Amino acid sequence: MHNQTINDIENSISLDDPQSPPSIPDGLKEEDRPVNWPSSKKWSIVVSTSLATFVVSFGSSVYSAAIPHIQARFSVSPDTALLGITLYVIGFALGPMAWGPASELYGKRRPLFLGYTVFCICQIPCALAQNMPLLLAFRFLSGLAGSSSLAILGGMYVDFLRRPAERGISTAVFSVATFCGPTVGPIVGNLATLKLGWRWTAWLTLIGGLVFGSVAFLLTPETSEVVILRQRSKGNTSVTPSRIYRPERGISIFLQSYLTKPVRMFVREPILIFFTIYMSLAYGIIYLTFTMYPFAFVTVRGWSRMDGSLPFVGMTIGVILACIGIALHSIYYIQQSRVHVPERRLPPMIAGSIFLSAGIFWFGWTSSTSVHWLAQAAAGVFLGSGSILVLMSGVVYLIEVERGYGVLTL
Fold it and tell me: Which SUPFAM superfamilies does UniProt cross-reference here (predicted)?
């Protein structure tokens, strides 16, 4: 009965769309298939791309340290200066609508590094901006381009990591890099602003992007079996055209099969609706802390901006603990299960929802100056761990439920 239910879910995902994902191509040698790559190659891809994504998420929050200086430099209000973070996150939200379909059409590698290259280039005008509109425009473009890694990597890992336990561990590695970036950003940003000036928040992002992005570029090949076969078929007469999946390139087909499909999936799949809303809330809480922490520790408690960024260490600890928990859950629970179903990903998410609610209440309840600062800073452990458990468990669950449409889901 349960297996029939799972099959019904998988069949219902097609949405009556004729452009269903291709079956596994049979024109590749076994050793050339991504799932059969050596473990060292697989995990070098996971680690290098995760570190590159760390820079993207770091760039979202390092800007917060420069807000007072940007206000003074361009004579703008605090709300206007704060738009640099808001527009960056809006870029995160809008970018996957293009990067996800592009990865289905052109493979994972090209869209991933195209977006990452544009992200690095955008840091130059951010660092050299002489007016606020220019700075805000390129902050938005940074988020839009940088979101390629957030949109594509989850689906990329599924291409070569087929065991559920491996996926869980890769999720933990990706989570540490992705969500430590926003918590480390304010600390490094305040230090850089104090010693070098606010423009160095963008220069540091550029330097990190060039270093980690170059390493990831060298270590990461194409992981889509369909695209690999298509590339190798050029000039190879031993592979017949009938064995190669070639997506139709017409504008109407592209719009119907790639750009509008995520919207139709969202509307028709109750799972996607509820998970998207809840995961968006958890993600928003992470970025809410970038204004919540400075207000609580700098404005209310009277700390310096440098000291006021140190409580983010508590959130970083929470993120790391949550990622360790996800990895252990994958190794000792999912790996030992005789039959794996996506719902086995949900217990950490349930625990995360409890931690997140407790962390929000804890932070607000201890915000008075009569309460020791350490009590309030400790709430960050629950805020960080709760947010990550909700987000990453939800991401892996949706990828496994939606199977061939995992990237479009993200």
Answer: MFS general substrate transporter (SSF103473)
Residue 10, in any domain of the structure: no
The reply to whether 235 falls in a domain is no
- pLDDT of the residue at 27: 59
Q: What angle do CA 384, 385, 389 make, to 5 degrees?
A: 120
Tokens of 53: 């994504």
The three-point CA angle 286-65-183 to 5° equals 30
Within a domain: residue 289? yes
Q: What band does 218 get if pLDDT is binned at 50, 70 and 90? A: very high
Residue 122 lies in a domain: yes
Going by the DSSP 8-state scheme, the letter that residue 71 receives in this structure is: H
Q: What angle do CA 384, 386, 387 make, to 5 degrees?
A: 70
- φ/ψ of residue 21, rounded to 5: -65, 150
Which CATH number belongs to the domain containing residue 73 in this structure? 1.20.1250.20
Greatest CA separation found in the chain? Answer: 78
The amino acid at residue 350 is: I
